[in-house]
Design a protein that fits this description.
Protein name (chain A): Cobalamin-binding protein
Order of helices and strands of chain A: HHHHEHEHEHEHEHHHHHHHHH
Strand order of the largest sheet of chain A: 2-1-3-4-5
Distance between the termini of chain B: 128 Å
CATH superfamily of the largest domain in chain A: Cobalamin-binding domain
Number of strands of chain B: 22
Helix content of chain A: 55-70%
Largest sheet of chain B: 5 strands, antiparallel
Domain B12-binding (chain A): 96-230
Shape of chain B: elongated
Largest sheet of chain A: 5 strands, parallel
Strand content of chain A: 5-15%
Pfam families (chain A): B12-binding (PF02310), B12-binding_2 (PF02607)
CATH topology of the largest domain in chain B: Phosphatase 2c, domain 1
Number of helices of chain B: 13
Strand order of the largest sheet of chain B: 2-1-5-4-3
CATH topology of the largest domain in chain A: Rossmann fold
Oligomer: heterodimer
Structural class of chain A: alpha/beta
CATH class of the largest domain in chain B: Alpha Beta
Structural class of chain B: alpha+beta
Keywords (chain A): Cobalt, Metal-binding
InterPro entries (chain A): Cbl-bd_cap, Cobalamin-bd, Cobalamin-bd_sf, Met_Synthase/Corrinoid, Meth_synthase_dom
CATH architecture of the largest domain in chain B: 4-Layer Sandwich
Radius of gyration of chain A: 22 Å
Helix content of chain B: 25-40%
CATH class of the largest domain in chain A: Alpha Beta
Chain lengths: 353, 576
């Protein structure tokens, strides 16, 4: 930590690195990382104190609508190249067992998992990184073909928890212990416990956890007795129908709805779908806070794009109305609506005249 | 003769005459007959009816001393004497209790009589609980085998299966379990699980030369059931498998795990001699061995087949494009069948001697392995042909003729759609592209303005007719501009509200608009991501994307010492 003030610490070079990401300047970004490594900063510190926070900032800028998806993708690509060059620089030779690191099918945010993979590699594990959006069948056939000591699975979005659970079960059926990570399991990993799987908040913790196979195997089994009420299955089955009804409701309430461009319509449909997917995930783990957290996030993202919270509130009320025979789902939706910013709620109480 | 004479008689010594209909299996002592050694005159007070009760009676005075003992009670409690204390009932407070006495389970009831004395009613219930115990044991065995079936029922990696077998064997079957796999190339691998303090097994593994295996293990692997169990323990100790165990104090068993023809391995189980293996234990061990053998056989079979499949797949996987100065490549590939890594889409590139490259992306008819094999033939054809023809339209026609010839010869009737292009770096840092289309989706170009443009390219299928119409188009990529080739798995992906709507070219172009600053790999991944998001986990066709971006690097002409060759094949000969 003595280097913190000498100009070659991750913190000191962070603004410069962020600028490189903004410019999608791969050579300059790699150069920043190399400077730190040459100055003797350990590779895992460069990964965790430079690349990781910068990537989190990239996500925030997208959420605040300061960066387009294209800019976010370009910056992420540069970060991936930086990670590759740090890995090549450190070039650790692992003699411990093989860990397979993969992102859930449908998860494209591979960088956090990639960082964990590199931290594990630096701790002496042999790591196979299967990349973004790995189909469960692909992972399982990999495990059959190459023995793995453990699997590390990343899930960034809680809406994929049901699929994550199927993937975890597939690994456990192959008798390979699993450790999971990523924001998808909740900030404190509470949904990982629900699914009966070991959880680590970051790379170093995952590395410690993987060090003891007996701890990995001594995880309490999944606790999903609440699925017996079939609300999850029912909601998934009615997804298309519910989106249609929500669209019809919007068409009635919003005067300019008929003039939506096809692209606007597509993004409305996908937002309506996300609401249901997060609701389904909340039902799956029996935790309404999953849905409330999502509503808070959705309102922030939409607000930065000029969509008022009132629009979300009205749609939530519509869903709460049509889901009258889903007691758990109805309660979650109402709790999510209650968490909306006060202005949004007031608005939603007096619908468009 | 008094009761004192029978005080030390063991009820199991066979002195009593067994009464056949009621004799329990565990002892010949059950008898309703009055023991001949007891003077019946002492029991004159008992009516005859009492002798035929299932319950024995012990009558005690208020001071607790025994007044009278019925014949049945005398048999169950031979140490009781009239006038003595009744030690067996000490500490029984309640009105009813069960005690274990001389190996039998006795139910005892204490009833205070109105006249003052107390009567103890004693019933032998050993036979009632015996079946219950057996049932519990049988249930435990079934539960154990159910867990084994669940854990070993899925196809596993062979090493995983071996580790799971020994882990499951402890502690139910053994304190130490060693699995020795049949030797491969003269070396036998073994896994061992040992019971730890907290009941969780600790695992380790090792390798032994086949010649060093204990004789009993070798015999068992050859299908000979070893009978000389005595020195099995010595052999196991000598092999170093039973640390901390003494051969004299160990109960060791060996069981072969059935394989396809010969045993796939043997399992050695050991525990302290005090817990020897009963017939029931051995039955359970054999049932376990059957399941373990099946799991290991499946695992090995799967591994061998996967090895072959992997090798073949590797040869059919798309090869990443060759590095070309001034070009940044980006690719994405997602076969329709996730378990399979290959499919009917293909892409690739070959460097040209003049510093440029031939690149292509296409889709063959059919799906799965057969389609993948055809893409392999097609790529090999192109690999050979690009050396004699580097002009895209003529190269495509050459390929058409070659495919037509081979499909006619094999009677397969396979065909392909593809875009084939040549890229050459330009002095200003841009790229010059010439593309030929064989019935494939026209490529897109992301211009530096952020607009997306579709190149006018169509043409006919490749491999169907002798002289297909091939269209050709030329364009320039300024630095930062990207040309994108993709397969119909992208635009024909079905999703939307009901999962029936196609993604379509419009949506794809919309999604790429404004992406001019994306590096080629990010752009290719974006196309894959849009497609997969649209699909939302639904089934899909093969998806392939090839992007090439002008990086703006000027070509280093002096590096290319090889002179540009003159075309070997003249224009007129390609279409004939």
């Amino acid at each position: 930590m003595t280097t913190a003030t000498t100009g070659t610490s991750p913190a000191a070079l962070y603004p410069r690195y962020l600028h490189c990401l903004a410019e999608a300047d791969e050579p300059a970004a790699v150069e920043v990382a190399r400077e730190l490594l040459d100055a003797g900063v350990p590779a895992d510190r460069v990964l965790l104190d430079l690349v990781a926070p910068a990537q989190a900032e990239v996500g925030e800028r997208w959420a605040r609508n300061e960066w387009s998806v294209a800019q976010e993708h370009a910056a992420t690509h540069v970060s991936e190249r930086v990670v590759a060059s740090i890995a090549a620089y450190a070039n650790p030779r692992g003699d411990r067992g093989r860990i397979v690191v993969a992102c859930m099918d449908g998860e494209w945010h591979a960088l956090p998992a990639r960082l964990v993979a590199e931290v594990l590699r630096l701790r002496g594990w042999q790591v196979t990184f299967l990349g973004a959006s790995v189909p469960a069948a692909h992972l399982v056939s990999y495990l059959h073909r190459h023995d793995a000591y453990a699997v590390a699975l990343a899930c960034a979005l809680p809406m994929r928890l049901p699929q994550a659970h199927r993937m975890i079960e597939a690994c456990q059926r192959s008798d390979v212990p699993v450790v999971v990570g990523g924001r998808g399991f909740g900030a404190d990993g509470r949904w990982a416990r629900r699914l009966g799987v070991a959880w680590a908040p970051d790379g170093p913790t995952a590395a410690d956890l993987l060090g003891d196979e007996r701890v990995l195997r001594a995880v309490a089994p999944a606790d999903l007795a609440h699925l017996a009420d079939d609300e999850y299955a029912g909601l998934v089955g009615r997804r298309g129908e519910l989106i249609d009804s929500a669209l019809a409701d919007l068409a009635q309430r919003i005067p300019g709805f008929g003039d939506y461009t096809p692209a606007q319509l597509d993004s409305t449909v996908s937002d309506l779908g996300y609401i249901l997917d997060f609701l389904a995930a909340a039902l799956y783990v029996d935790d309404g806070s999953l849905f409330t957290e999502f509503v808070d996030w959705l309102v922030t993202v939409l607000a930065s794009r000029g969509v008022p919270a009132a629009a979300v509130g009205a749609t939530l009320r519509h869903y709460a109305g049509v889901l009258h025979d889903f007691p758990r789902a109805g309660a979650y939706v109402r709790a999510g609506g209650a968490s909306l910013p006060a202005a949004g709620r007031r608005h939603s109480q007096s619908p468009e005249a | 003769m008094t009761g004192a004479d029978v005080r030390d008689i063991d009820p199991g010594d066979g002195r009593f005459t067994p009464s056949p209909p009621q004799a329990p299996a565990w002892s010949p002592a059950a008898s309703t007959a009055v023991p001949p050694t007891i003077d019946s005159s002492e029991f004159a007070g008992w009516p005859e009816i009492v002798e035929h009760l299932r319950e024995g009676l012990v009558l005690c005075g208020p001071d607790g001393l025994v007044w009278q003992v019925s014949p049945v009670a005398q048999r169950l409690l031979p140490e009781i004497v009239v006038g003595g204390a009744c030690a067996a009932f000490d500490g029984l407070d309640g009105s009813s209790a069960e005690i274990v006495h001389h190996g039998r389970r006795l139910r005892v009831r204490r009833v205070p009589l109105s006249a003052g004395p107390t009567c103890w009613y004693v019933e032998d219930v050993s036979e009632d609980t015996g079946p219950a115990d057996e049932l519990a044991a049988e249930r435990a065995r079934s539960a154990f085998l159910a867990v084994v079936g669940e854990k070993l029922g899925n196809p596993l990696h062979p090493d995983r299966a071996a580790a799971a077998v020994v882990r499951l064997a402890v502690p139910t079957l053994a304190e130490v379990a060693v699995l020795i796999l049949a030797p491969r190339s003269g070396r036998a691998r073994w896994w061992r699980a040992r019971r730890d303090d907290d009941d969780l097994p600790t695992l380790d593994r090792g390798v032994l030369a086949a010649a060093e295996l204990p004789a009993a293990v070798t015999d068992s692997l050859h299908g000979v059931q070893p009978h000389a169990v005595d020195w099995l323990a010595e052999q196991a100790v000598e092999a170093g498998w039973l640390p901390g165990m003494d051969a004299a104090d160990a109960s060791v068993r060996l069981v072969a795990l059935p394989g396809r023809d010969a045993p796939v391995g043997v399992l050695l189980v050991a525990r302290p001699a005090a817990r020897w293996y009963t017939d029931d234990d051995l039955d359970l061990l054999r049932a376990f061995a059957d399941r373990a053998g099946a799991a290991l056989t499946t695992a090995l079979l799967y591994r061998n087949q996967a090895e072959v499949a992997d090798t073949l797949q590797a040869s059919l996987l798309p090869v990443e494009p060759a590095e070309v100065s001034g070009v940044q490549w980006g690719t994405a590939y997602r076969p329709a069948q996730a378990g399979l890594r290959i499919g009917g889409d293909f892409y690739g590139s070959h460097r040209l001697p003049d510093g440029g490259a031939v690149f292509f992306l296409g889709d063959v008819s059919g799906k799965g392995v057969e389609a993948a094999v055809f893409t392999g033939q097609l790529r090999q054809c192109l690999h050979a042909l690009h050396r004699i023809e580097a002009q895209p339209a003529r190269l495509l026609r050459l390929l058409n003729d070659a495919l037509l010839e081979s499909t006619l010869a094999h009677g397969q009737g396979r065909f392909a759609t593809m875009v084939l292009g040549v890229v050459r770096p330009h002095r200003d840092g841009g790229l010059a592209l010439t593309l030929a289309g064989g019935g494939h989706l026209p490529p897109l170009v992301v211009r530096s303005s952020g607009e997306v443009e579709q190149l006018p390219l169509n043409g006919m299928l490749i491999g169907v007719v002798p002289d297909p119409r091939v269209s050709q188009v030329s364009t320039r990529l300024a630095p930062g501009e990207t040309c994108l080739l993709y397969s119909d798995g992208v635009t024909e992906a079905r999703g939307g509200r009901r999962g029936a709507e196609q993604l379509g070219t419009e949506r794809l172009m919309q999604a790429l608009t404004g992406c001019q600053r994306m590096p080629a790999p990010a752009l290719a991944e974006r196309v894959e991501q849009i497609t997969c998001d649209w699909l939302a986990q639904r089934d899909h066709d093969d998806i392939a994307v090839l992007a090439l971006r002008a990086t703006g690097t000027r070509p280093h002409r002096h590096l290319h010492a090889v002179p540009t060759p003159t075309p070997v094949v003249r224009e007129g000969t390609t279409t004939s």
